[in-house]
Amino acid sequence: LRLEYAQLLSAHPRRRGQAIEQYRILLAQDGAAATREALADLLARSEDTRSEALSHYEILLRDRPRDNAVRLKYARFLGSRQDDVPAAIRQYSFVVSQDSGNAEAHAGLARAYSWLGDRDRALHHSNLAVRNGGRGSEVHMVRDDLLRGREPRLAPLVRALVLQGNSRADFSGAALGLEGQADVTPFLTLRMETGFEDYWRGDSNAAAGFFRVGGELRP
C-alpha cells in the first residue's frame, strides 16, 4: 500500500517531497534495489537533492556494476552539471565498453564532448549514435549543430604573387583554379587545389597545370 501511495504521490509535481519521504520509509524497510532506484530518480529531479541522488545511484552501481540502465541514468544526471561532465564521460565510456552499439551512451558522449568543446570527438560519437539507431530530435539537433561549418566545399581559386627588388629578385605569377575541402572522418580533413599557373621574370615565363593535396589529422 505504501508503494502504491508513493507512486501516486510521485506522479504529482507538488507532492514530490511527500513521495520522497514515503520512498525513504520503504527503503528502510525493504532495502530493495527497485525502491532505491525509484527514490534516486525522484531525487534527481532537483538540484537541492543532487548529492543524495548521486549517493543512491552509486550504491546501486556498486551492487550491480553491469546495470547499464542505471549507469546511463547516473551518467545523464552527472552530465547536467559542467563540473561533473568528465565523470559523466567515464560512465558513458564504461557503457560503450560493455555495449559498443549503445546509441544512448554515444549520444551522451556527443553531448558531453560538445560541452567541453571537443567537437571532433563529439561528432564521432554523434555519428555512432545515429548509426546505431539513435532517435529523437535531440540526437539529430546535436549532430546538425556539430556539422555546421564542416560541410564539403568547392570554391574558385585566384592567387597572385609579386616580388619586387633588384632585377634578379623581380618575380611575378598568378594561379587560377578550384580549391575544395572535405572531412573524411571527424578527425581527418583533406584539402585539394587544381588549376593553371604561370610565373615570369622579365621575358621568361613558365606555365603549367597543377594539382595539390593536403590535409589535417587531429588524433
Would you count the extended β strands for me? Answer: 4
Elements, N to C (H/E): HHHHHHHHHEEEE
Q: Residue-averaged pLDDT, rounded?
A: 92
Radius of gyration: 29 Å
Classify the beta-strand content into a percent band. 15-25%
Strand order, biggest sheet?
A: 1-2-3-4
Helix tally?
9
What does this structure look like?
The protein contains nine helices and four strands. A four-stranded antiparallel beta sheet has the order 1-2-3-4, with no helix packed on it. Strand 2 and strand 3 form a beta hairpin. Helix 3 runs antiparallel to helix 4 and helix 7 crosses helix 9. The longest helix has 15 residues.
Compile the SSE list and pairings:
Blueprint: H1 2-10, H2 16-30, H3 33-43, H4 50-63, H5 68-78, H6 85-98, H7 103-116, H8 119-131, H9 137-147, E1 153-163, E2 171-185, E3 188-201, E4 204-217
Antiparallel strand pairs: 1-2, 2-3, 3-4
Helix pairs in contact: 1-2, 2-3, 3-4, 4-5, 5-6, 6-7, 7-8, 7-9, 8-9
Throw out a few tags for this protein:
219 residues, alpha+beta, four-stranded antiparallel sheet, 9 helices, 51% helix
Structure described in brief:
The chain is α+β, with helices and mostly antiparallel strands.
